[in-house]
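S.,

Sequence below, as promised.
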Amino acid sequence: MADETATAEVLDRLYATVLARKGADPETSYTAKLFSRGTPKIAQKVGEEAVETVIEAVRGDKAKIASESADLLYHLLVLWANEGVAPADVYTLLAAREGTSGIAEKKARKAG
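The prediction came back faster than expected:
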């Protein structure tokens, strides 16, 4: 199933496409339609896709987990674009946490 040429860079390309749809015609672009409906609808879609991903994980269907995860990532990128969060903002946070135990990272967040 995995395509060796597909890399995480696809997220940056998809984000650029999502940004390009801001202000486009909602009648011709699903992404533009989401933007036109605002943060509550976009956030709802992120939640729906997250739940669908969890359901497929519980079922153990790898292909459907991958498909739902793709939907989740797309809607998350729309949410980021709507809220002015760039993927690099998230990558920076992830990189800062790299090599840190999840338990230690959670304790540090609670202390701060």
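Residues 53 and 68 are 5 Å apart (CA to CA).

Coffee later?
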